[in-house]
């Protein structure tokens, strides 16, 4: 029986863990398949306060983890399969640990890469299709790559990929980018990046072994063409990791956990949500960390009130 179980090891989960451990609540932190969350898949972080020079995402996460360990936080690898939040203590079924009990739970399971759901995509993951430029960019030295998307991630990934690839083409479904001005300007100023606006990806083309191109439809004319590429990087956003909570807790139509505004309270007293799993708007490492601290404080108050 744990006082608090924290699900996830991104900035939200790790910040919760630090706060809870310092409040002597001896949290258990469950580490899922995407350890460290999205920060561990990113390159330089320039906007997390406290670092006057850029810090690499994985290093930032590792530092948070060491900080949590210093206060004695217990980490276990494990994926939550089912939860029973209908009575207290809450029950969690974890693949590696079996049933565990918790007085309160903080859900900070983050979000995973969105897929296009087009032919050729799944079967070519790892054969030219990637959801992580930081992880796979190295394999595309002197090759042609395409980045799909028009947000900050697409800008960041295309800029990063110019370190390796001979050509980087951004393919976006509209005429206008969604990305912030500074990220747009950085990408637009990079000579290695070219742009295909108003194209919808319809198929990943391969020779049976590896990716050779992307079939796109011109949204004005309806005509289809194949853009040659050795690598295709998806940067089209993320989906909150809440599948195991379907029907258990209030979730909106896109899968984000609903919290009471200004708090981390879900509709179930004692269950709190922090980070990208409940945030469709800000989705920053620092906001995730901020809501992580809020969840720890909310959990502490809940435990105190329900002694
Ligand atoms: P995002 O802002 O949601 O952008 C997703 C992009 O993918 C959009 O341009 C969208 O097109 C496109 N898209 C979505 N579904 C698609 C589909 N099925 N087919 C084709 N295109 C599709 O996601 P993000 O870029 O990952 O950014 C998420 C959040 O993280 C944002 O708040 C962002 O500011 C932040 N972020 C910040 C940094 C940084 O500051 N260093 C870096 C990365 C991310 P539409 O525009 O037409 O909707």
What does this structure look like?
The chain has helices at 11-22, 57-70, 133-136, 152-161, 181-188, 285-305; strands at 2-7, 28-31, 44-45, 55-56, 74-77, 80-84, 90-94, 98-107, 111-113, 129-130, 144-148, 167-172, 193-197, 199-206, 211-218, 224-228, 231-234, 238-240, 271-273. It has 307 residues and is an alpha/beta fold. It is built from six helices and 19 strands. It is elongated. The structure holds NADP nicotinamide-adenine-dinucleotide phosphate (NAP).
Sketch the topology as an H/E string, one letter per element. EHEEEHEEEEEEHEHEHEEEEEEEH
Structural class: alpha/beta
CATH architecture of the largest domain: 3-Layer(bba) Sandwich
From the alpha carbons, calculate the radius of gyration and give it in angstroms. Answer: 21 Å
Q: Classify the helix fraction into a percent range.
A: 10-25%
The helix tally amounts to: 6
Q: Please count the beta strands (DSSP E, at least 2 residues each).
A: 19
Can you tell me the CATH class of the largest domain?
Alpha Beta
Q: What is the 3D form? A: elongated
Would you summarize the structure shown here?
The chain is built from 6 helices and 19 strands.
Give me some keywords for this one.
single chain; 307 residues; alpha/beta; FAD/NAD(P)-binding domain; 2 domains; seven-stranded mixed sheet; five-stranded parallel sheet; 6 helices; 19 strands; 22% helix; elongated; binds NADP nicotinamide-adenine-dinucleotide phosphate
